[in-house]
Amino acid sequence: MGRKVFSPSMKYAVSMVVRQFFPDVYNYLDLRSFPKNVNNFFEDLTKDTMEMRKNNNIQRNDFMHLLLKLKEEEERLQTENKSSTAFEFSMKTVAAQAFVFFAAGFETTSTTLSFCLYELALNPEIQIKAVQEVRNVKEKYGMLSYESTQEMTYVEHIIEETLRKHPPVMNLSRICTRTTTIPGTKIEIEEGTNVMIPVYAIHHDPQYYPNPEVFDPERFTPENSRKRPNFTFLPFGDGPRICIGMRFAYMEMKLCLAQFLEKFHVSPCIKTTIPLRYSKSFLLRPEGGLWLGVSSRIKTEECSI
Q1: What span, in angstroms and rounded, lies between the C-alpha atoms of 189 and 187?
Q2: What is the pLDDT along the chain (305 residues), one digit of tens a residue?
Q3: Which of 242, 246, 274 is nearest to 119 (CA)?
Q4: Residues 39, 40, 44, 46: what is their CA dihedral angle, to the nearest 10 degrees?
Q5: Annotated binding residues, as ranges?
Q6: Residue numbering of the annotated binding site for heme
Q7: What is the 3-class SS of 237-296, one letter each residue?
Q8: Is the pTM higher than 0.70?
């Protein structure tokens, strides 16, 4: 099902363009962002899961339990006529949030890790520093866990720099909530206007990131991050509408990258494309895939000795 979501057809691509630039036409024609069977799958899965937990009084410390409690609170407020009319926490809303969580751990995460390994292959000195941090943390904790990954600050900076240079989602869409004039201009954006935010362009603006094509994790140290204005790093958006799966995605990527670097060495191979070329897709993907050389880190280090 995940492949169906992230392998869009031409019909899907056209639908996305219409939704972005002609929302009234999109609604009038009853177009869909995803195939109907995909929507039905996630709605049915979410509904069945929540009903099973509610009927059997199953409580777990997870994301789905949080959504269930929010929906129950909404239903209680509606019964008492205290619910806000501004937002209805319907089953479709619950399914949409569950889908975002799914997406955070599926395509965007795997794509980012691929780009990350590509950059580490081309920057061996950064790879060595990351491996050393992973080993130091594992020696301290005895294993890789959620707690131990919180101390892998350099690995996190590598992921952040990867998201900066290769943001999975190149543009964000937001609705203007009140009429605003862009500072320093006479351009007025009316309330209700659909605004496209060029994430890729912002991430490659030399004003915020000098030498933007250079892969440099040090950009994201606390000292350097404080030098940049807010809203110049937007792989997950920002503010109240920030991606709900962001923390999960970071945790997953740090664990996967740490596990990989502990055991394997990655380097360019004869098929590696330098410089990298992107495919024509609504998500940022490498054209023709990524080809890298992977070898056992233990054997590689034994040979170097």
Answers
A1: 7
A2: 556 555 656 666 677 777 777 777 877 777 776 767 777 888 888 888 888 888 888 888 877 887 788 777 777 776 766 555 445 567 777 787 777 777 666 677 888 999 999 999 999 999 999 999 999 999 999 888 888 989 999 999 999 999 999 998 888 888 889 999 988 899 999 998 888 899 999 999 999 999 999 999 999 999 999 999 999 999 998 888 888 788 888 999 999 999 999 999 999 999 999 999 988 776 788 888 899 999 998 765 544 44
A3: 274
A4: 0
A5: 243
A6: 243
A7: ECHHHCCCCHHHHHHHHHHHHHHHHHHEEEEECCCCCCCCCECCCCECCECCCCCEEEEE
A8: yes
Q: Which amino acid is at 143?
A: M
Using alpha carbons, select from 191, 189, 159, 194 the residue that is nearest to residue 173: 194
Residue recorded with tokens 């030498």? 211
- Strand ranges, E, within the chain: 171-175, 180-181, 188-189, 194-198, 264-268, 292-296
